């Protein structure tokens, strides 16, 4: 089974030696998204809620480029520089996902690329094409 590299201009370009996502069969591994605006590659804002919103928009764009949607995600990992912001993440996530929700981890880290306050990566399972 060969891997397919997913790339879209609707999400921020990779800022290192990695792909936005890699698809193997019906499984898509999404790289971490931070709150960069794709058109400018600048941080959306210093406001945490706006950063969380932008990250979910970026993830949605990569999911769509891979042939799916956010709701197809089966696992998300959320990295926060301040775990006390988890309630904001929960509120934002509830607007982007419906039940059944994906499995999830939320982890506080000391720093994220470009000074972001949030980064999310995950795994998406596409409907079988068989």
TrEMBL record:
InterPro entries: RidA, RidA_CS, RutC-like_sf, YjgF/YER057c/UK114. GO terms for molecular function: deaminase activity. Coiled coil: none annotated. Pfam families: Ribonuc_L-PSP. SUPFAM superfamilies: YjgF-like. GO terms for cellular component: cytosol. Belongs to the RutC family. This is Reactive intermediate/imine deaminase. It comes from Aliidiomarina taiwanensis.
